[in-house]
């Protein structure tokens, strides 16, 4: 009788247990390993400037005069190095200003300049446009000065 009672209690306990508790749960899946990120390469491309203005005194950068026109061979030609995937070209665009010490002495040295460019393929297809607009009030507004001029100190 005790065996009967023990089996009955055990059967009731098993019947009352939730079905999910009786099933073996699968182990959680491990996340797939992430692919290593490839850092972009930075390279200084070859630049052909048709009209080099000079070197900056403060930045020691070379400044190039960009002529107006639609013929890519007459503009600044930048050779993008061989690559796979997309390439990004970055450069600084500044409007050229002829600085006048006389205007500074008179106290009215104001000018607004706009430089607009088009980035073309060698076939002449337009890729994008760029523009910059600057204002001049004092010598501190200048990005840089180019040596070899007739201004103070040969700037």
Describe this structure in words.
The chain has 155 residues and is an alpha+beta fold. It has a domain at 46-81 and 99-154. The protein is 16% helix and 22% strand. It has helices at residues 2-16, 19-22, 101-106; strands at residues 46-48, 52-55, 62-64, 77-79, 111-120, 126-136. It has a two-stranded antiparallel sheet. A hairpin with a 6-residue loop joins strand 2 (52-55) and strand 3 (62-64). The longest helix has 15 residues, at 2-16. The N and C termini lie far apart (115 Å). 1% of the residues are buried. The model has no long low-confidence stretch (mean pLDDT 77).
List keywords for this structure.
155 residues; alpha+beta; two-stranded antiparallel sheet; two-stranded antiparallel ribbon; 16% helix
Strand and helix layout:
Elements: H1 2-16, H2 19-22, E1 46-48, E2 52-55, E3 62-64, E4 77-79, H3 101-106, E5 111-120, E6 126-136
Antiparallel strand pairs: 1-4, 2-3, 5-6
Residue-averaged pLDDT, rounded?
Answer: 77
What is the string of SSEs from the N terminus onward? Answer: HHEEEEHEE
| Uncertain residue segments | none
Rounded to an integer, what's the Rg over CA atoms?
36 Å
What's the overall geometry? elongated
Structural class: alpha+beta
Strand content: 15-25%
| Intertermini distance | 115 Å
Main sheet overview? 2 strands, antiparallel
Strand element count: 6
Which range best describes the helical content: under 10%, 10-25%, 25-40%, 40-55%, 55-70% or over 70%? 10-25%
Spatially, the strands of the biggest sheet line up as 1-4
Number of helices: 3
């Amino acid at each position: 009788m005790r065996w009967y009672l023990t089996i009955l209690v055990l059967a009731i306990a098993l019947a009352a247990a939730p079905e999910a508790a009786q099933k073996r749960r699968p182990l959680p899946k491990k996340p797939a390993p992430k692919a290593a990120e490839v850092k972009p390469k930075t390279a200084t491309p070859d630049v052909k400037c048709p009209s080099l203005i000079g070197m900056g005194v403060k930045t020691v950068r070379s400044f190039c005069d960009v002529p107006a026109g639609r013929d890519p061979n007459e503009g600044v030609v930048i050779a993008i190095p061989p690559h796979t995937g997309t390439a990004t070209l970055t450069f600084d665009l500044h409007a050229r200003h002829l600085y006048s010490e006389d205007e500074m002495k008179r106290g009215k040295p104001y000018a607004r300049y706009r430089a607009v460019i088009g980035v073309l393929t060698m076939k002449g297809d337009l890729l994008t446009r760029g523009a910059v607009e600057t204002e001049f009030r004092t010598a501190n507004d200048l990005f840089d000065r180019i040596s070899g001029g007739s201004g103070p100190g040969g700037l």
